[in-house]
Amino acid sequence: MDRPFTFINSAMSADGKISTKERKQVRISGDVDFDRMDELRATSDAIMVGIGTVLADDPSLTVKSEARRAARKNKGADENPVRIVIDSKGRTPLDADIFIKGEGKRVVAVSGSAPADKVEELQQKALVIRTGDDQVDLCALMKELNSMGIKRLMVEGGATLNWAMLSNGLVDEVYSFVGNLLIGGASAPTLVDGSGFAESDILSLELMSMEKMDEGVLLKWAVINTG
Ligand SMILES: NC(=O)C1=CN([C@@H]2O[C@H](COP(=O)(O)OP(=O)(O)OC[C@H]3O[C@@H](n4cnc5c(N)ncnc54)[C@H](OP(=O)(O)O)[C@@H]3O)[C@@H](O)[C@H]2O)C=CC1
Ligand SMILES: Nc1nc(O)c(N)c(N[C@@H]2O[C@H](COP(=O)(O)O)[C@@H](O)[C@H]2O)n1
C-alpha cells in the first residue's frame, strides 16, 4: 500500500450529527471516550483535519496526557503527531491553535488555487504541500505523506473531509462514538457529508466491535474498499 493506514475517529449524536446547524462544536464524548481519542492521537504518526474544522473549532490536536507525550519522546518521536490541515486556498489563520500549541511538525496541504502570499506566510509555520488544481488532491497527498514516513494517519473530520477521504477509497477503518443526545437540523454536519454515493456505489462496512462507553456506544468499522 503506498499510503498510510488511515482511520477516521469521530463523535456523533444518536441522530448522526457531529455538530450543530451553526457548526458549533458540541461535547458529545464523555471522559472515557476523550481519553481513548487521546491514546489514538498518541499512537498515530499524523492527525488530519479539514479547514472547515480549523475555522469552526480551532483545535490544537495535541496529545493531552503528559505520560503519553513523554512515551512518544522516549521513542524518539515529537511529543505530538504531525498535524495536517487540508486547506486548498491557504485560509488557515496564522494564529490558529494548531500552530501555537504543542511542539511538533505541521503540514498545510494546499492546491494550485492558494494565493502565493498566503502560501509564503504559511511556510513560516508549516511545511506546505501543494497538490491538485482547485482542491487538494488527496490521493497524491497520501502518497507524499507515506513517503515522508507517515504510516498511521488519524482523520478527525469534519464531515466534508470524511466524505472526500472515504469516497476516494483512502480510509481503512471508522471509529464512531455515538453519544446520548439528539442535535437535529437538516443542515447540521453528519459523520459523512459531501455529495453522497449513488446507490450502486454505497460503501459497505464490516463491524469490528461495539462497546458501551460513557453514556453512549463506540462502534468500530472496517471499510470494504473494492476499487
Ligand atoms: N464531533 C466530531 O467528532 C467532530 C466534529 N467536527 C465538526 O465538523 C464541522 C466541520 O466540518 P466541515 O464544515 O465539513 O469541514 P471540514 O473540516 O471537513 O473541511 C472541509 C474543507 O476541506 C477543504 N478541502 C480541501 N481539499 C478538499 C478535498 N479534496 N475534498 C474535500 N474538501 C477539501 C475544503 O475547503 P477549501 O476548498 O477551502 O480547501 C472543504 O470545505 C465543524 O462543525 C466541527 O465542529 C469536526 C471534527 C470532529
Ligand atoms: N472525539 C470527539 N468527541 C467530541 O465530543 C468532540 N466534540 C470532538 N471534536 C474533535 O476534537 C477536536 C478538539 O481537539 P483539541 O481538544 O483542540 O485538541 C475538535 O476540533 C474535533 O476535531 N471529538
From TrEMBL:
The EC number(s) this enzyme carries: 1.1.1.302
Where does this protein act, in terms of pathway?
Cofactor biosynthesis; riboflavin biosynthesis
Keyword NADP: yes or no? yes
Q: State one molecular function term (GO).
A: 5-amino-6-(5-phosphoribosylamino)uracil reductase activity
| Superkingdom to which the source organism belongs | Archaea
Catalysed reaction, written as an equation: 2,5-diamino-6-(1-D-ribitylamino)pyrimidin-4(3H)-one 5'-phosphate + NADP(+) = 2,5-diamino-6-(1-D-ribosylamino)pyrimidin-4(3H)-one 5'-phosphate + NADPH + H(+); 2,5-diamino-6-(1-D-ribitylamino)pyrimidin-4(3H)-one 5'-phosphate + NAD(+) = 2,5-diamino-6-(1-D-ribosylamino)pyrimidin-4(3H)-one 5'-phosphate + NADH + H(+)
Q: Name one GO biological process term.
A: riboflavin biosynthetic process
- The question of whether Oxidoreductase is a record keyword is answered with yes
Keyword field:
NADP, Oxidoreductase, Riboflavin biosynthesis
Q: Where is the Bacterial bifunctional deaminase-reductase C-terminal domain?
A: 4-219
Pfam families, per this entry?
A: RibD_C
How does this protein assemble? Homodimer.
Q: Which family does it belong to?
A: Belongs to the HTP reductase family.
Q: What is this protein called?
A: 2,5-diamino-6-(ribosylamino)-4(3H)-pyrimidinone 5'-phosphate reductase
Origin organism is Methanococcoides methylutens
